[in-house]
Amino acid sequence: MSRYLKIALVLLILVPLGFSTKFYHGPLAGWVNNGAGDILYPIFWFFLLIAVFPKMSCAAAAFSVFLFSSAIEGTQLFKWPVLVLLRQSFIGRTVVGSGFEWVDFLYYAIGSLTAFILGRKLLKSPESN
Question: Is the pTM of this model over 0.90?
Answer without folding.
Answer: no
